[in-house]
Specification:
Elements: H1 3-17, H2 21-28, H3 31-62, H4 66-99, H5 105-145, H6 158-203
Length: about 200
């Protein structure tokens, strides 16, 4: 390979990473949905912290019996541990979004796939909390129904087992549908806008 070939190869390599002004304008248009995702992440983090505090105060506000309080806070400590694990991941995701500069196609691709990955992580987070939701519901119903004289005198009846099964199925369906709706409303539709920009750039 002579000097001219090397020079031409170097020029070709350079032009692959150069963003034309028109393309740059399209890439920058993805900043608006990205800003909305950042805003939603920040707001949701605040709301979830408040929700955890309120859940933690539930035994005091609802006057749980002493044995119930101990069991509640045992589950609550596991609940908080799961939340903290995912909150740390979402925090680093939020920090990455704040440092992103959308100036190249590569940065737009990376941002889009990072958003998609964290959308799936959010769903995983929701499903990780589902067992706690089920246990809280079961505990609440058990506590309320135990006040009825003789309700559990003969052990669990078929109707009670069907009711227990119904609570589990309801919680699973409720969380699945709610998570899909929530993720789409606050993150998915903005991710689609970014994907649309990527598809437009592909066509050129």
């Amino acid at each position: 390979m002579d000097f001219n070939d090397i020079q031409n190869a170097w020029k070709n390599e350079q032009t692959e990473n150069v963003v034309l002004p028109n393309n740059l304008e399209k890439i920058q248009s993805a900043k608006t949905p990205l800003d909305k995702i950042r805003k939603n992440l920040k707001n949701e983090f605040i709301y979830q912290i408040i929700s955890i505090v309120l859940i933690g105060l539930a035994p005091l506000l609802l006057h749980f019996p002493a044995k119930g309080v101990i069991l509640f806070y045992l589950l609550f400590s596991l609940f908080v541990a799961v939340c903290v694990y995912y909150f740390i991941k979402f925090y680093f995701f939020y920090k990455r979004l704040n440092t992103i500069t959308l100036k190249t196609k590569d940065s737009l691709y990376e941002t889009y796939f990072d958003i998609r990955l964290n959308m799936e992580l959010y769903k995983t987070f929701g499903f990780a909390l589902t067992p706690f939701l089920i246990l809280y519901f079961i505990g609440f119903f058990y506590y309320e129904l135990s006040k009825i004289p003789g309700f559990f005198a003969d052990g669990f009846t078929n109707y009670q087992l069907i009711g227990l099964f119904s609570v589990v199925v309801f919680c699973m369906l409720f969380m699945g549908i709610s998570l899909e709706w929530w993720v789409h409303k606050f993150y998915g539709k903005y991710a689609k806008e970014i994907r649309k920009v990527i598809d437009e750039l592909k066509e050129e």
